Amino acid sequence: MDWDALKRSWAQLIEFELGILQLESDPLIVQIVAGSEMVVLVGYEVHIGESTGAMNFCIPLMVLNPVLNQISEQAHYTRTISPEVMARTRNTMIHLIQRAIVPVDAVLGYSSLTLGDILELHEGDIVQLDTAPADPIAVYIGGHKRFHAQAGHRGEQSSVQLAAFADE
Fold it and tell me: What is the pLDDT of residue 1?
């Protein structure tokens, strides 16, 4: 966790020190305020290498009360952006987003094998999938199922033809 970035984001409102006093994975064990007290819960999805997990910050409202007035006052003085700057920013963002590379995966099907079976696999072996050859192929974009497709080829390369949007 980048504690300095979190401190900087609050620096205009309040100065405080951050640190980890204790880690607890069971929220039922932790009781920082009475059960009837209002809290602000901020959830984060944390990615470390290939692993993904959840992290929550639970901030009692009584801790934020001293700075709530300052937040309200600052909202009155926020700078407005001219339409020209907003349009230029929007076009720049659209240009950057359109150039982003997103993984596209066409999944023929799935199979489960024991580790022993996997160790005995050789070139030319056949692994049976849970789908029939005529079944549509699931197409995932950025890890999310978006389309159904049919297998094919274009020239000498394998390809898929998108047939329908996925229901998800």
Answer: 58
Provide the residue ranges of all domains of the chain, joining segments of one domain with +. 3-76, 104-165
Question: pLDDT tens digit string along 42-75?
Answer: 888 888 888 888 888 778 888 777 777 766 666 5
pTM to 2 decimal places: 0.47
CATH class of 104-165: mainly beta
Q: Which fold has domain 3-76?
A: Chemotaxis protein chec (3.40.1550)
Q: For the beta carbon of residue 107, count every other beta carbon within 10 angstroms.
A: 13
Characterise 155 by phi-psi region: left (phi > 0), alpha (psi -120 to 50), beta (else): left
Question: SS3 letters for the chain?
Answer: CCHHHHHHHHCCCCCCCCCCCCCCCCCCCCCCCCCCCCEEEEEEEEEECCEEEEEEEEEEHHHHHHHHHHHHHHHHCCCCCCHHHHHHHHHHHHHHHHCCCCCEEEECCCCCCCHHHHHCCCCCCCCCCCCCCCCCEEEEECCEEEEEEEEEEECCEEEEEEEEECCC
